[in-house]
Amino acid sequence: MKKIFLFFSLTIGVSFIFTQCNNLDLAPLDGITEDTFYKTASDFRGAILASYSSMQSFNGTSTENLGECAEWWKLTLMTTDDITFDETQLGSCATNTAMDNFTFTSNDRAFQSLFTHVYQGIFRANLVIDKLAEENELTADEASLFEAEAKFLRAWFHFQSWKYWGGQGPLALETRRDINDIALPNSTPEAMSAAILEDFAAAAQNLPASWDDSNLGRATSWAAKAYIGKVNLYTKNYGAAISAFQDVYNNGPYSLMPTHEDVFSFDFENNSESIFEMQYASNSDDNGWVLDDNHSENFKASQGIMRAWWQDAGRGAPGGGLGINIPTTELIAEFEADDPRKTSTIYTEGDTYYAAGVEATYDPVWSPTGATMRKYRGVNVAKMNPVNFAIDYNNERFYRYADLILMYAEAIAFNGGSTSEAVGLINEVRSRSCPSCTPVSEGDDVVAAIQHERRVEFAFEGHRLFDLVRWDIAEEVFSAQGIDFKTWGTSGSWPAIFPLPQSEIDRGGGVLNQVN
Amino acid sequence: MKKNQNSRHVSYNNRCLHLSPKIKPLLILPLLLVFFAIPAFSQISGTVTDNNGETLIGVNIIEKGTTNGTTTDIDGKYSIECPSDAILTFSYTGFNNQEVAIAGRSSIDVVMDGAVELDEIIVVGFGTQRKVDLTGAVGSISADEIAATPVLTADQALRGRLSGVQLSNRSGAPGSPINVRIRGVGTTGNNQPLWVVDGVPIVQTTNITVNTAANTESNPLVGINPSDIQSIDVLKDASAAAIYGARAANGVIIVTTKRGKEGRTSLVYDGYYGVQSVRKKLDVLDVAGYTALQSDLGRDFSTFSGLPFVDWQDEVFSQAGMQSHNMSASGGTENMNFNISGGYFKQDGIELATAFERYSVKANSDIKVGKRIKIGESLNISFTDRLVQSEPGRAPAFIAAQNAPFTEVFDESGPGGYAVISADNAGPAAGSTQQIVGLNDLSNNETRVNTRRILGSIYGELELAQGLKFKTQAGIDYSIGEGGWFSNIYNFGGASAASTDVFQVVSKPSELTTNIANTLTYTNNFDRGNLTVVLGHEETNFEFDRLRGQGRGFLSPSVTLVNTAANSSVGQEADQWALRGFLGRIAYSHDDKYLVTINGRLDATSRFADGNRSDFFPSVSVGWRLSEEDFLKDNSLIDEMKLRLAWGQSGNQFTGTNFAYLSTLGLTSLYPLGAAQTITAAPTPFVFANPTLKWEVSTQTGVGLDVSMMEGRVDFSVDLFQKETTDILVGVPISAVSGFLLPPDVNAGKVKNTGIEISGLYQNRAGKLGYNISANLTAVKNEVIELGDNETPIISGYFGAQTHRTMVGESIGHFYGYETAGLYTTQAELDAALPDESGTPEIGDIRFVDANGDGAITPLDRVTLGSPQPSVFYGVNLGFDYEGFDIGIFMQGASGLNVFNNVRRTMESMNGTANQFATVANRFPASNDLPRATVADPNNNNRFSDRWVEKADYLRLQNLQIGYTFDSEKIRGIGDGFFQGLRLYVSMTNLITLTSYSGLDPEVTRGFSFQKGEQPLASGQDDGFTPTPRIVQFGTRVSF
Known about the structure:
- The complex is a heterodimer.
- Chain A is mainly alpha-helical.
- Chain A has 21 helices and nine strands.
- In chain B, a hairpin with a 4-residue loop joins strand 34 (696-709) and strand 35.
- Chain B is globular, with a radius of gyration of 32 Å.
- The chains are: A mainly alpha, B mainly beta.
């Protein structure tokens, strides 16, 4: 028996040695843990860029979890009278029909996709604000700058939420860390717009007026001021809108590009007309289906945008586009005969058509309406030399000076202000974009002139649906097309155009309700 | 299914075997005396072989009713003197006893039936147990059963063979993963059982893949040649599996490879050739039907109407060969034994661009050093090369079926001889026509996943004292994958995306699992009791590393080294985890009647935060061999009867994320910044960290009865079980205001599986005809009992679709959608239609049901539409043998399951220009079977509803085998004993499938996506993957 105990202890001894060799306190090999980050200015710069990165995901795809049907385009383009879908492409993204016809339901994953990326951007901004309060190596100036930038982004994302859900989505001003208490209740339109304006005001105060070359693309104080005007226009506070626009117009650094085509040139990203741009860039390992951060694949996400895949011509056209988003005949007809914006916006018969590695003469059989979206594309495709046939690297001109000028005119017009001032502003954009067009005169219907000008100037830039709602003509425009336009909630000054995702309401466990 | 042994035969045999060497001379003496005394005696001689024609050494031959006997020699020959009217009894361990009347003959060759292994030993983890002593639920299959069907991987051999074990395919493409479920789906996470090969636990991961698509995932068992396997033991309940605590919640499957035996060295060749073909194609519209449909949809295809029908599927499917060759040598002496083998396996796919090839080497040996030391090893080296469909070429049959039925596949003037799709040859259908055949041409797209793997272990065992052994085993499982996707420049027009550059992805994943186990085993046989105590300690470490390179824009398709590309990049992933366990088992049997086994294991993992790292998994089981009690002992009917009761717990720690408890910043988030558009790192957390994560625990309670009757002719077992999994590790979607889309891992929920398993065997002989029938059946009910704090149902589906739901009171991942009730066929019906949030019906549209009765059709009207998990599954095996011939018929099936036919959802959508199933000829108004064809589909007829969920019950004639074993005496005559045995057989697999399911194959698991793994929350989706082939196989087994 003695022997047995001897060997028994030996076994335990051997086991003990193995135990010592083997460490259960392992650390991830593929990521930094949170407690070791958020110390230096460089850490914070990266952390704030993560919030910008959520904007890219709007236009990107969350293939695995949210589908890959270019949800933001679906919600901002397919829902307008400028775009329809190619019926032969139904199979791949069937809910485009529902978007086009306003027959979607709260279950459409497009809403979850958008909601996710909006609140992800807000979370990432809030996370920076949280971490600024913890121990770090920042100077007071650096800290105040990062806080202003975080607030700009928080306001920017909340404003997106406000536009889609009428300010009835959640107002998220802090990070949610308790897994049992995450959901937030509906905000009121007033509370949300007030918070947005407050954040933009703080950003306008502490952000720089411009950035050096190496930081181009980050938000500036002028961008914050321009947004203060825009938010006030949407909330119909015309006086406040006018004074904000006026400040930017008179004192800001912006100027219109010489031509409409130039605005979207790949050579002129972040140009003089750009107030705020989503940045895209060529990435050597480019997989457009790994654009957002919610993929299981752990390789480098794309920094491109899938414009080529969704908007390049299908139906046998060379280059491999799907041609899902088709310009409507109504939009084509809206362009005046010699408006150069027509050719810088759409391809029609005889145009030189560009796709990855392709230069061909545009054949109208490639589209049911004989036209294909061209904005951002065209000769830029050859300049970009995309790595991947589906990808485009041209920045999204999210807020440009021409938009500000026309909104300035709109605010004046709707406020009953000086017609000549409004007309002058409209013509400033009009004569730049279409030098041969007859300028708008004071006797014309100023509102109609703004409506026409915005439609042709900003086609496919994601403004049309909100313009129609802001002008209270959405119902009229859509019913002319046989579409029953309805909003999901009208309790505030701005309607909830879309339903909150049903899945969010479910996950809220009663905290969050559908818009009303 | 292994059969129960007959206990009386055990003791009989043991005695004979133990005594025979000693008593042999004593036996011969009286024999000689008898010989001279009675002249009526004659000399009988012959050879004894097994079913495979191999000679058996040491078979006991006794003249019935006497002590006159002998044994076979090293060549299996015997000679005995006895009266010419006597009966000889042949007995041998592991075989049925046979009685043969001499009937005046002088030469009698006997083939021993090896179906019944008398003293069957079951591997139970860190030791073995006699089957009679087992108290847990364990099922086993033998090498013979593995050899019965042409299988590439060991898991395939389990199909339909064991109660409680259910299989379903990811795809019929060779080398695809298989879902193995033991006693149902227990968790929303990982449901795969733990495989232990010769003591080394196999870590089943999804790392050895190429590019992103899930179809490049391979079966983790592909490297193991089924021919090398001696037995597979399935530990179904926690009482058996608890010794593997940490990873045993889904059951444990123990694979034991062949080892040499003392005796003559034998050399065996077995191999086969097979021809595979497709069982069924999709039935699509012909040109007339297609143009008529398109005309209904307002599209003019009249210019194509006279063209002949082109069946694209004919170019996707083809007959394909398969072959397997194995050579093994085994033998041994008293102090050492060996078994070495080499195998080659090749299977071409019946679909384009699929194939599999394996080279394997196996070497096992055990060496005794002196009296107390034993050392040994198991080594398996394998090279597997797998060709899989590239991303643009996946699901070719499904894609092919959608192509316009008049568009030619080939065109001599086209690139590579393929037709380029354009308005000329496809008209308006160009937008939905893909040159799927050209895309799958390996000169255009080629995706390979190759693996080089070493799986092995070495052990040393020291007998410290009588009955006390210390064993240490070190195991390694090292895989290096190398694969890639090559894509050439092509443009086939139509809906096929063009490739404008030569493109190459190279992926080099490597995985290393090391495992060290030390055990101390103490056995003591008392007067009336047998005690075995095992104490042990095990350390497991896992490391993963993958280098991924991608290049685009090569100068030439012949040189695609990533660094020579115009654009190239590299990515790397790495991961690790570690596990430590302390384990123990006490097994005691009293009077061979009362059995008790207690297992316990304390496990600690690196996957949870410090305080939650460890958990203890105990189990207790008892057995009562009623047949040893006086009241049954003299019963002539019942040989063995055992009642088992078991309770136990086991754990699960796999969540898909190895550091889910830590807030980790992902490094793949980026943003371009500055005039130079410098891509800048934007680190941020991607997953909500949950520091409270802890073990998922599965608790099983079971009762079982094993009965063996009529001298082994009848055998059956019944098991009732309840398996309750608590603190399920599940990714619960949280509100996106958290900032996260990916659901964080939490311990939420409880799932209960209740079931019954029945298996039975009847075998008998009628003269020269031997026959047996065996069957097994399992019924399982799966129910979610709890789901997180607020019990929010989890809605799931691929690509964000909402096709499945998991909620309290229902089964995991059931289908979820609208119910339909026919069509609106009249204006009156239409006028009465309820308002629908998702559409506006017209005549000929689907009537969706207002399930909640609120007077409107809304997403809230979606209901449970059946489960993808079968409620019952079964297998039936019939066997016959007659004078060397044998026939085996094996059927398996399942019922109570549903499949989401996503292929049909496309092929009966009747809105686009894609071709449709021939069934759409029955559309409204010609018939009320299907709704009208409509481009705009204003009623949203194609929304997810019961239209697309089909009953997928099936009964499959899985295998029919006819074999002939040559008379061993005659075979040995050839070449003077060079040949020892020869068997030839022909076998047909997947011969007939009875099912109402309309798709290619009712055995489907998951749909296509870029997420790997089994996806238990969205299973049973048919995305048109490669169907299981039908195989006709010609095989032989030769021993030398």
